[in-house]
Each structure stands twice: as C-alpha cells, then as structure tokens.
C-alpha cells in the first residue's frame, strides 16, 4: 500500500527517536472527511508494533458508533496502546473526555511513593459527576437499545441515497464511513478541478440547506454530513433530499451567473 511507505520509511530511519504515533482511525475528519483504504489502519498498527512505537487512536470524533462500530478501531480488529475518547461518550449533551490505556502503560505509573512514578496530571473539571452521569446513561442506551445493530439499515440507506448525488455535475467524490460523510464539490467532475476558494461554495450550500431546515457544516468545498445516530430513516432521507437540492440550487446559480464554467 503506497500510502504506508512514507510511514514505514520514517520509522525505519528514526523510530528510536519517536515515542508514539497519533492517528484518527478510518476517517480524518477536519482534513475533509478523508477515509483510509481498507487494511490501512491494521497495517499502521503492525508497523508501530514492529518499531516499538506506541499507537494512539484519536476516537474523539469517530468513536461511539460513528463509523458503524462502537469504536472505529474495531473495524480492522486493531487494539491501540492509548485511546482518546470524548463527544459521543455523553451523546453530546455534556463535555467529557476519557483516556484509555493498556495495562502495560497504566502499570508504568504504579509504584511506591518513593519511586516517584505518579502521573501528576489533572484538569480543573476532572471527574465532573454530572458529565459522568450523562455518560453512564448514554452507555446504558447503547446497550439496552442495541444502537450499533440498529445503525446498519440506516448506513445502507445513506449509501444508496448518496449514490444518486453523482448525477450532479458538481459532485466530484463522496467519502463515507458509516454515519460520517463528506461530499466534495468540484467545478469540473472529469478533472476534479475545485471551485475557486473565494467563492466559498461549501458555506453557500450550507446556508441554502439551512433555509430548507437542515443545519450542517462545510470543510472548504466539502459538505459534511454527520447525522445523529438516533435519526429515523425518514429523517435521514430528508437530510439527503435537502442536501441534494441545496447543492443543485447553489451550483447551478453560480454557473448561471458565469462565475465558473460548468
């Protein structure tokens, strides 16, 4: 896999100087909803292990069902050394984060007072009981209502609906992993030439969608869809319909005004 070669070359050359690698598993959100190819994450884990470099999985955005599994790492049977969690742990109701480690790492900070192994680190709001209660209630819902199992038909509905977006001449690529979606808008579908940055096309589309009852966000020319897990299939269909119509209206208007060719 060519995209792994730079990593392996770096660790081969400087692995003894590198303590850890931090990776957002499967989907690199803020970069534009970039999805990794199948097998990439598992191979990253293998490379880190071979060079004795800790693998830290940032599951703040991708965890708690977003990719279709409870945690994104599960998709490829990967166990990181450290896992960072937040956002979905409380269902988004209250801010809470958690850091999970292997026993080996945890035990490195255990010892007598004289050994000075204690990890003296904390935050002002550490252990907030209200946020903790929200997280426990959220995890109970995941368990009792079988949230992860119920996501599969919703993901299939999204995948099928998103395929129709390719009929629009301005949709260059659709990247989806479970309930995480990025729709990249381009000026030229054949060449993937992007819209001029000054046009702020993504922002225009999200404003149009807002008029039609949908709040979403852009990442440059990429329209981000991350519907809440509890949405019904009818609501998800409405999300897709509004997004499709908004893209079509905005892009056709820009072309009609001669701001770009299309």
From TrEMBL:
Domain of life: Bacteria
GO biological process: biotin biosynthetic process
SUPFAM superfamilies from the UniProt entry: PLP-dependent transferases
Annotated keywords: Aminotransferase, Pyridoxal phosphate, Transferase
GO molecular function: adenosylmethionine-8-amino-7-oxononanoate transaminase activity; pyridoxal phosphate binding
InterPro entries, per database record: Aminotrans_3, Aminotrans_3_PPA_site, PyrdxlP-dep_Trfase, PyrdxlP-dep_Trfase_major, PyrdxlP-dep_Trfase_small
Pfam families, A to Z: Aminotran_3
Protein name: Adenosylmethionine-8-amino-7-oxononanoate aminotransferase
Organism name: Desulforamulus profundi
